């Protein structure tokens, strides 16, 4: 039933001309995301959080990363989420949540990843802690500075809307080197 609902909503959005789904419509989403990211990069809270976490996670083994990810996934949706709850009150997570709240529904979620693909901060609970095996990380941070990935909109069961994602490499302005990545999930029907 859910795949059928996804198909119906996608077809309806295309028939109604949702600009976020048209080929030329990807540009407004990308422009909005890049302008937002550029403003946030001027905030020390973002760069400092990524730099600090990179120092902490640099020596982690793959086994340790996978264990951390399993622990995170086990907490998602539970009444008690000690790791996730602690994560969501970090200053950068609070900053990102404020950006989502003040976006008039355009932003649905934002999360920042370190150089290993681990979440540094997020506006909301993510389904997993390690993004390092996903295109949003591999095709941005994995390809170097200045890379942006615009993913086609997909129906999101949790928000019941079409979400378009834009991911971008986070580059340290002091060194010009990539230090992480950021993903913005946006309501594609509003663009």
Give your account of this protein's structure.
The chain has 191 residues and is of the alpha+beta class. The protein has seven helices and five strands. The protein has a five-stranded antiparallel β-sheet with strand order 2-1-5-4-3. The longest helix is centred in the first third of the chain and has 16 residues, at 26-41. The chain is globular and about 40 Å long. Mean pLDDT is 87; it is low at 4-24.
**Straight-line N-to-C gap:** 27 Å
Rg (C-alpha, Å): 17 Å
Q: What shape does the CA trace take?
A: globular
Kindly name the structural category.
alpha+beta
Sheet bearing the most strands, described? 5 strands, antiparallel
- Fraction of residues in H or I helices: 40-55%
How many extended strands?
5
Can you lay out the helices and strands and say which pair or pack?
Blueprint: H1 2-15, H2 26-41, H3 44-57, H4 62-75, H5 82-88, H6 91-101, E1 107-113, E2 119-122, H7 135-138, E3 148-156, E4 161-171, E5 178-187
Antiparallel strand pairs: 1-2, 1-5, 3-4, 4-5
What's the short story on this structure?
The protein has seven helices and five strands. By secondary structure, it is of the alpha+beta class.
Give structural attributes.
alpha+beta; five-stranded antiparallel β-sheet; 7 helices
